[in-house]
Amino acid sequence: MKPHNDEQQLPNCETVIGAAAVPKVLSKAFNIPFQSTLVVVEHNNDKLTPITLNAITAASKLGGEVSCLVAGTNCATVVEQISKVQGVKKVLVAQHDSYKGSLPEELTPLILETQKKFNFTHICAGASAFGKNLLPRVAAKLDVAPVSDIIEIKSPDTFVRTIYAGNALSTVKCNEPIKVFTVRGTSFEAAPTEGGSAASEDVAAPSPAGISEWLEQSLTKSDRPDLTSAKVVVSGGRGLKSGDNFKLLYDLADKMNAAVGASRAAVDAGYVPNDLQVGQTGKIVAPDLYIAVGISGAIQHLAGMKDSKTIVAINKDPEAPIFQVADYGLVADLFKVTKSAE
Ligand SMILES: Cc1cc2nc3c(=O)[nH]c(=O)nc-3n(C[C@H](O)[C@H](O)[C@H](O)COP(=O)(O)OP(=O)(O)OC[C@H]3O[C@@H](n4cnc5c(N)ncnc54)[C@H](O)[C@@H]3O)c2cc1C
Predict the structure, then answer these.
(1) Chain centroid, CA 117 distance in Å
(2) Could you tell me which CATH class the domain 232-341 is placed in?
(3) 8 A C-beta contact, residue 106 and residue 213
(4) Other beta carbons less than 10 A from residue 84's beta carbon
(5) What pLDDT digit, counting tens, does each position of 250-260 carry?
(6) Matching CATH topology for 35-202 and 232-341?
(7) Does domain 35-202 have CATH number 3.40.1370.10?
(8) I want to staple 106 with a disulfide (CB 3.0 to 4.6 A). Which of 9, 98, 303, 321 is the partner?
(9) Using an 8 Å Cβ cutoff, are 144 and 180 in contact?
(10) Would the CB of 295 count as within 6 Å of ligand 1?
(11) Start and end of every Electron transfer flavoprotein alpha/beta-subunit N-terminal domain (predicted)?
């Protein structure tokens, strides 16, 4: 059998090698790697963070078994939720005070211990602040190169990710013995939260590293839907001209049960807080409907919203680049049209 990590030599065999259909016994007999993936679960001890469901879908596409690691302080509810998710075979649970705040310094030794015991071929998490914070550290400790923010899985060792602010796609073949990657949530459907019946198993928590300490967090409270999972997003840019004028968008958003987003120019000008920023250096969103108001459509902004199902743009400049990606465009003064929408 030819080595599975040479894509050229195995043009038709990728799916066979990566498929769930390769049973453990065959994989041992023929020395074919048995795919098994660990998804590191993001949660707040009470609820699962939705991007974990997208990461589970990505993990399922690799073939083989999907296990989830839930590390927390008092996370029985999350364990119950995750064990019902379709596609999950096993839930590994570690509870310890040191997992408060999901510090990478504490979670990494746990993941390394878990990896020693179970020998996963892949380790992944959502490409959120949690995953971006944690998995590069895990990869460094395993001495492998991580693949970040993947948008497609071609085979168990070949992933697609965006480069140049989403203007080009890069297909990455990863020859590392353990593939460590983060998953762009908007590129994979959420795994169904019912229908699974995974068994749970406790894993021993290694002694706390104790090199950092979780003190507190202050979260923005909002009655509006979360920006990254909202079905409708109304975003404003520098064209709004002031923070006060964003009230037009808040009112519109409340009528549509929408989240409010913003361009970086609006954030930098202090119109809105930076957790509203959409784009390459902000949040990636892909709602059913994205309404861009007074936003020019710079590539860095498009990188965060161009996968939205329907894009509506309101801009007084008919040449604004946002119209190139918009399904519906309104060349108009935003102050006139958003007022008349009230
Ligand atoms: C490394 C890097 C990362 C970046 N990351 C991000 C990012 O994550 N997100 C992001 O958004 N940007 C990002 N940027 C900045 C980006 O390049 C643009 O500067 C920014 O997106 C512009 O924001 P804007 O469209 O609100 O402002 P402008 O480009 O100034 O556009 C304002 C628009 O409003 C329109 N307008 C003005 N008045 C009205 C009116 N009365 N009615 C209707 N339309 C009106 C104008 O015609 C114009 O098109 C990044 C840049 C760099 C270099």
Answers:
(1) 26
(2) alpha beta
(3) no
(4) 15
(5) 999 999 999 99
(6) yes
(7) no
(8) 98
(9) yes
(10) yes
(11) 37-218
DSSP assignment letter at 26: H
Measured from the Cα of 317, ligand 1's closest atom is 47
d(CA 52, CA 323): 33
Q: Please tell me the residue having the least CA distance from ligand 1 atom 50.
A: 300
Residue 21: band (very low, low, confident or very high) from pLDDT cuts 50, 70, 90: very low
List the chain domain ranges. 35-202, 232-341
By CB atoms closer than 10 A (0-12, 13-18, 19+), residue 97 is exposed
Residue 340 pLDDT grade (very low, low, confident, very high; cuts 50, 70, 90): low
Q: Record the tokens describing residue 32, joined without a space.
A: 């074919």
Give the separation between CA 125 and CA 70, rounded to whole angstroms: 12
Task: Return d(Cα 117, Cα 304) in angstroms, integer.
Answer: 38
